[in-house]
Amino acid sequence: MPIVMDATRVSRSITRIAHEILEHNRGVEDLALVGIRARGVPIAARLAAELKNLSGVDVPTGALDITLYRDDLMGHAAGTQPVIRRTEIPFSIDNKKILLVDDVLYTGRTIRAALDALIEFGRPRAIQLICLVDRGHRELPIKADYVGKNLPTSPSESVQVHLVEVDGRDEVEIQG
Question: From CA 73, how far away is CA 161, in angstroms rounded?
Answer without folding.
Answer: 23
